Amino acid sequence: MPQLRYTKDHEWARLDGNTAICGISAYAQDALGDVVYVELPDVGRTVKAGEQIAIVESSKVASDVYAPMDGEITSVNDVLSSNPALVNEAPTGQGWFFKIKFSDTAQHGALMDEKSYIDYTKGLHE
Amino acid sequence: MRYLPLTSSDRTAMLKKIGAGSVNDLFRDVPAAVQLKGNIHGLPNHQSEIEVERFISALAEKNIHAGSCPSFLGAGAYHHHIPASVDQLLLRGEFLTSYTPYQPEVSQGTLQYLFEFQTQVALLTGMEIANASMYDGATAAAEAVQMANRITRRRRAVISGNLHPHYLEVIQTMADLTGFELQVAVPCPRTDENFTVDETTSCVVVQNPDFFGRLHDFSALAETCQKHGTLLIVAVTEIISLGLLKSPGEMGADIVVAEGQSLGNGLNFGGPYVGLFACKEKYVRQMPGRVCGETVDADGRRGFVLTLSTREQHIRREKATSNICTNSGLCALAFTMHLSLLGEKGLTDLAELNHAMACNLSDASAKIPGCKVLNDNFFNEFVLELPKSAAAVVDELAKLPILAGVPVSRFYPDNAALKNLLLVAATELTTEEDIKIFAAELRKVCA
After folding, report:
1. pLDDT reported for residue B69
2. Quick check: A37 and B319 CB within 8 A?
3. What is the CA radius of gyration of chain B?
4. pLDDT digit string (tens) for A14-72?
5. Which residue of B has its CA nearest to A57?
6. Most-buried pick from A3, A49, B296, B370 (CB within 10 A)?
């Protein structure tokens, strides 16, 4: 499986050809608790890395989700509107949020790999 | 929940605990230069209760109030009968301090009446979901426009010229301060309006009955709006009209805002009132304010919770859906009590009575030489075209005293075409005798 890379805001991105499949991390879904709603961006929207483009809402809090890379939104995971619990059940699988058609692979390379991200989240607890 | 004020020994104990000698000691960090010494400028020194009562009563007697003479005032605030039981029940301690606690589920009674309020608002407006109330109809209208901007991601709202001018003012203030565009039509007391809607229009805001009392079916407008991805916002300033009229929901409205004053709440010099806010369920996450939900507890018993509050200010801070973090709890409760006492049939009967009295008023007015009823239709309020300045006529009749209605020029001082228009309303409190006196005196003034 192609490598998952993470942002400091707990999004992940996995490359698939010229698109990046993105979602929120297992750590993030665990911190949020039961996800009850996900507000996704419009398909076709041009986004910049770090731009707030989605909202994930749990019974405790509504949090912003940011674009991990520059590009254009090519599809969103509509299944989440009827089954937001997928974000908790399979955060890096069926619980993906959106796909971005990107132009710059270097942006992906600059994100944290799995090990760095796990170290990063451990640091957040201390 | 009781309100228990502090006693002086409570205060002394608290001051002792923190090591302060007096309450004034608590203010010693405030520079002496900005501390108030002596009386507040322009206010007299304290007086006894008897003296204060005498002073305030004398002030109050300078007013002509709607209950003291024939009154035909309306224009967004209506003089209705409030059952004595509503005021008596409101005095109950657990209601009178109706602030929603920060652990709201402790107050099941408060949440239950808010849930019932929401249910009534949804049924009246014909919408799928309603919130636990807003400040008043005008602020609800401004919130609705902002909500439409969020949903459509557009920044241009089209406003009917027959929307209550105060509602327009509040929307305008929001537009100026938060940066969206308004396209405002001119007032149309004589003809129907046409609205231009395109792919940049976030919403169209209309009113029914409109500011001039005219009735509309906005179904066709709703279809036009839908074609362009534009939301239809319908405002209602006289909620009792929904006892008879087709609801905004049936017409296809996306958001309905209304003033709830007519049920349970007195005129109160213009406030506090209660704003009603309802919308289609698919927009619920963009709806401002709070929502009470019905659920079951661990043992399966019916209970109530505040829901969707993750979008509110205390959690989302500057990213909150709206900066409203409260509601008009006590006024909403009065609304709910009054409507519960009326029931569905009672509301319809009340609406019919309002309309019947307005018909009598219209018939009597139409017979006066030089006076013309402008409306083809109305609920309990309509426009009279007089042979002279409506403001002058109102001043003249106030001397009798008769509160003859609201001159339209008060809202549009620069519009000469509206100068002779008088907005008059009748309610269940209007008597045949009131109408007789009004017609006789208006005839004299217009002669």
Report:
1. 96
2. no
3. 25
4. 999 899 999 999 999 999 999 999 999 999 999 999 999 999 998 788 899 999 999 99
5. B310
6. A49
What SS3 class is residue B405? coil
ipTM (interface pTM):
0.72
What burial letters (b/e) apply to B167-184, b meaning 16+ CB within 10 Å?
bbebbeebbeeeebebeb
Output the pTM of the full model: 0.87
Six-digit token string for B312: 């509110």
Q: How do residues B241-299 score in pLDDT, each as one tens digit?
A: 999 999 999 999 999 999 999 999 999 988 899 999 999 999 998 999 889 999 999 99
Q: Which residues on chain B are in Cβ contact (under 8 Å) with A60?
A: 310
- Residue B358's Cβ-count burial label (10 Å; 0-12, 13-18, 19+) is buried
The answer to whether B249 touches B121, Cβ cutoff 8 Å, is no
**Which of A43, A61, A80 has the highest number of chain B CBs within 10 A, making it the mutation to test binding with B?**
A61
> Is the distance from CB of B231 to CB of B256 less than 8 angstroms?
no
Q: Per CB distance under 8 Å, which residues of B are interface residues toward A? A: 153, 285, 310-311, 315-316, 319
Nearest CA in chain B to A41: B153
A14: which strand partners?
A4, A21
* Domain coverage including residue A76: 4-123
Cβ-Cβ pairs closer than 8 A, A with B, add up to: 16
> Which among B384, B329, B335, B277 has a CA at the least distance from the CA of B80?
B335
Beta bridge partners of B184: B159
Contact B86, B338 (CB under 8 A): yes
CATH code of the domain in which A95 resides: 2.40.50.100
Q: How many domains does chain A have?
A: 1
Chain-centre distance of CA B355, in angstroms?
20
Q: How are strands ordered across the β-sheet holding B275-279?
A: B129-130, B275-279, B255-259, B231-236, B201-207, B156-159, B181-184
Are B310 and A39 a contacting pair at CB < 8 A?
no
Give the residue numbers in A contacting B (CB under 8 Å), as ranges: 37, 39, 42, 57-62, 64
**Which domains are seen in chain B, by residue range?**
84-339 (3.40.640.10), 343-446 (3.90.1150.10)
